[in-house]
Structures are given as structure tokens and as C-alpha cells.
Write a structure and sequence with these properties.
alpha+beta; Rossmann fold; Tumour Suppressor Smad4; eleven-stranded mixed beta sheet; six-stranded antiparallel beta sheet; 6 helices
């Protein structure tokens, strides 16, 4: 079976399950939502649609291959095997959250509810799984290799991101650090730094660009045009990264000349923390899964040495599937 020994399915809690955990019962969750003027039925319907999709996925798993289901919250401590096939069933964020904990294992991303899930990173619906899984296990697979960003610290720790990394304060205070890009270097005070990949170039980065242009337009009382996303969008496989400094502040001790740039292959940002006990680095918007970035810690940020491997719909050549990627034996 092309070297695959186990299928690991990654699930996530639904918003209704999270509310039930918060309020201890379904009835209390319902009371809370209705008291706030929010429809409980929408939460219930979304929950039921997800539960049905998980059941259908479980039924589609081949009996001859070991399988295991784990919830997203266990990802930071779960040990994936070298020959695992990872199946995510959830929104795009679940794919991103999962990918950074893998090395080379392929991800088969399944959209459990196309009516509610955008599925930008998710090429397969639940109805396709029963047909697609045997093809993947037989090696009839094409992978889309998505570039990642990596922050490596001088204490040996490292953190990967599929969309972006945030380097800055864990609360709404100013981040203080020393930044170096190429031959330029300076001390800065800001709300933090975002380093975006190709996959993330139309995510957080787009929000920063939109806000910056709107503020500049307002103060200049001009018709300054916002750049179209195509102007800064990178391919998922791109080897370049963007970095942006959020809300840089100039003072006697802080400058703001290194606020935006593009990191080419082999280029890095070097950032030295000057935050006594509140500096953090986290990826892909998951604030709880962070590494500390306090005074004296140096982060080297650049293109990661590994990629996220997403199973893509395989094109056919002369009626046969291509076989350009296999799981290591």
C-alpha cells in the first residue's frame, strides 16, 4: 500500500461542543445563546452535519489498514509515524494547524460541510473519500508541496507556520526588540512582526495592507488605491516570504525604517528580544501553542526546511493516474 501503515484522522470540536464544555450542558448552552439573541438551531445543525461527516469518513476507512482518531487539541503532543497518512476533517484552519506538526506525511483534507466551510485548502468532499482513499493507499497520489516559515531560536527551539508567524508581545503592550535584515538593523517598538508564506499572503498580510492603505488614504485625504491581492499574492509553493511590522513607533530609542520586506531564499530576519517576560512567537493564529521569546533570545526567521504535503486531485494521463509521489518505505 505504497508504504502507508496507518491512517490518522484529525477532528475538531464543533462550536456547540465548545459551548457545552463552557456551560456544562446542552440545555445551558442553548439558554445562553437564546438569551443573547442567537439561534441555537444553527449551532445544532452545524454540529449534526459535522457528526454525520465524521461517521461517513469512519465508514469509508479500509478495514485492512490501522486507523486512529485524535482531536485537534492533542496535536502538540501526538507522535505521528513515519508512514502515516493524515486525514483532516474540518475547516481550512484544521489543515494548517495539523501541517506544522508533520515532517513529510501527506495530508488528505476533507471538507465535512461545503455549505459552511470555504475549503480553500480542502480539495475533497466527504462523498469522494471512499473512492479516493484506496487510490492514495495504492500510491496513485499527487502532492501539492506548500511552503512553510520557520523561527529557530538560539536555545534550540523551533516553530513552524503554514500561513504565518507572529513575533511580539503576548498582550496588548509594545514589543521591544532589535531587528536585522541584510545589512540594515535597528531597535524597534511595535505591536509585533508578521512573517507570511505564500499560503498566508492573502490572509493576515492582506488585512495589514488593507488597513495601512486606508489609514494613509484618510490622513492624506486622497484617493490612494489599494493594491489588488494579485500584487502581493504568492503561490503556495513560493520560496519567498513577506514580513511586516505592525504599528511601529518611533522615539529616541526606536526606529521604523525596516517595516516591510520580502525574504528571498537563503535570506533571514534576525530578531533579538528585549521583552523581559512577555515575548512570544506563535504560528497560524494559535496563541496557546507558543514558544517564549524573552530578553536575550534570538530568533532566526526564514523559509522552513520542510513543506506541508497536501494530497491534490490527481490528473489522468492516457486514462491512468500519475504516480509522482510516494510514502517512503
Amino acid at each position: 500500500m505504497a508504504g502507508i501503515e496507518k491512517i490518522v484522522v484529525i477532528t475538531k470540536k464543533t462550536p456547540l461542543e465548545e459551548l457545552i464544555e463552557r456551560f456544562n450542558s446542552r440545555s445551558q448552552a442553548r439558554f445562553y445563546l437564546e438569551h443573547m439573541g442567537v439561534s441555537f438551531e444553527e449551532y445544532a445543525q452545524a454540529h449534526e452535519a459535522y457528526a454525520r461527516a465524521v461517521q461517513r469518513l469512519q465508514a469509508a476507512l479500509p478495514s485492512g489498514v490501522k486507523s486512529q482518531f485524535i482531536e485537534r487539541g492533542f496535536l502538540p503532543t501526538f507522535q505521528f509515524g513515519e508512514r502515516d497518512l493524515v486525514v483532516t476533517i474540518g475547516p481550512d484552519g484544521l489543515v494548517i494547524n495539523t501541517a506544522k506538526y508533520l515532517t513529510h506525511q501527506p495530508i488528505l483534507a476533507v471538507n465535512p460541510d461545503p455549505a459552511r466551510v470555504d475549503g480553500v485548502l480542502i480539495p475533497f468532499t466527504i462523498s469522494e473519500v471512499a473512492r479516493r482513499l484506496p487510490q492514495v493507499l495504492a500510491g496513485q497520489i499527487q502532492l501539492r508541496r506548500v511552503s512553510m516559515v520557520k523561527a529557530e531560536l538560539n536555545d534550540g527551539q523551533a516553530l513552524y507556520g503554514v500561513n504565518d508567524l507572529f513575533i511580539g508581545p503576548r498582550t496588548h503592550v509594545s514589543a521591544r526588540y532589535f531587528i536585522q535584515h541584510g545589512k540594515k538593523q535597528e531597535s524597534q517598538s511595535s505591536s509585533g512582526i508578521i512573517v507570511s508564506t505564500g499560503a498566508g499572503s492573502t490572509g493576515w498580510l492582506q488585512s495589514i495592507v488593507t488597513g495601512a492603505v486606508s489609514v494613509a488614504r484618510g490622513f492624506a485625504n486622497s484617493s490612494l488605491a489599494s493594491p489588488q491581492p494579485e500584487a502581493y499574492r504568492l503561490d503556495w509553493e513560493a520560496k519567498d516570504l513577506y514580513f511586516t511590522v505592525r504599528e511601529p513607533f518611533t522615539s529616541k530609542t526606536s526606529q521604523a525604517t525596516i517595516v516591510f520586506g520580502r525574504l528571498k531564499p537563503g535570506e533571514f530576519l534576525q530578531i533579538t528580544s528585549q521583552m523581559p517576560d512577555y515575548g512570544v512567537i506563535f504560528s497560524d493564529g494559535i496563541e496557546k501553542d507558543f514558544i517564549a521569546f524573552n530578553s536575550g533570545t534570538v530568533a532566526k526567521v526564514g523559509l522552513a526546511d520542510r513543506k506541508a504535503n497536501l494530497v491534490a486531485p490527481a490528473p489522468k494521463i492516457d486514462g491512468r493516474f500519475t504516480r509522482n509521489a510516494r510514502i517512503p518505505r
